[in-house]
Amino acid sequence: MDLYRKARGLGGKAYPSNALPMSTEDWRAHFGDAWPKLADAKARYAPGNLLNPGQRLHW
């Protein structure tokens, strides 16, 4: 996980389908400015967190 954070600090991205566990903060950083729009859409269309529960996209 430390290597991922170092790479992210240098502008790197991780692909969501990889095996790294991602925290909510990691997801916020990954999606950047699109995070609020994604959070709104997920709250609207997946209120029970049924879509991608394994990816730990928590709001």
Structure description:
This protein has 59 residues and is an all-alpha fold. The chain has helices at residues 2-9, 24-31, 35-45. It is globular, with a radius of gyration of 12 Å. The two termini are 21 Å apart. The model has no long low-confidence stretch (mean pLDDT 80).
Strand content: under 5%
Portion in helices? 40-55%
Would you count the extended β strands for me?
0
Class by alpha and beta content = mainly alpha
Radius of gyration over all CA atoms, rounded? 12 Å
How would a textbook summarize the main sheet? Answer: none
Query: What is the number of helices?
Result: 3
Quaternary state of the chains: single chain
Q: Name the poorly predicted regions.
A: none
N-end to C-end Cα span: 21 Å
The coarse overall form would be globular
Please tell me the overall pLDDT: 80
The ordered string of helix (H) and strand (E) elements is HHH
